[in-house]
Design brief:
The protein is elongated. The chain has four helices and no strands. Helix 2 packs antiparallel against helix 3 and helix 3 packs across helix 4. It has one domain. The protein is mainly alpha-helical.
Length: about 120
């Protein structure tokens, strides 16, 4: 399903579809009032459509809650991995301070060389 891959696109698609449904409902409502249909029949159709739209909106909200939950879980996992990497780096610095200093110096020289080339 394409709507799952792009939340922004799915919102725009859903809004477009809801506008189309609203337009059709408005046309049907005008026709029903002009025809010999009783007001009760029009109300029942309107109630049925409103219930269907409410169900669609609730499903969409449920999908948004699921996406938010997944994003939160992803953030928590990223935080855990970052903390693990920081702990590992700290242990390596404590065990091999001179090697770490040499690596930091080398990275600094590379960065300075790249920045000097740009200027």
């Amino acid at each position: 399903m394409s709507w799952q891959s792009s939340p922004a696109g799915s919102v725009a698609d859903l809004e477009r579809l809801l506008h189309q449904v609203e337009d059709r409902l408005e046309r049907l409502s005008r026709r029903a009032r002009l025809s010999s249909a009783t007001p009760r029949a029009v109300d029942r159709v309107g109630d049925s459509i409103a219930a269907a739209l409410s169900d669609i909106a609730e499903r969409f909200r449920g999908g948004a809650r699921t996406a938010g939950s997944e994003a939160s879980q992803f953030g928590d996992d990223a935080l855990k991995l970052g903390n693990d990497a920081l702990r590992t780096l700290t242990k390596e610095v404590e065990r091999r301070p001179l090697v770490t200093l040499a690596v930091a110096f080398g990275v600094g020289m590379l960065a300075a060389g790249l920045l000097a080339r740009r200027s």
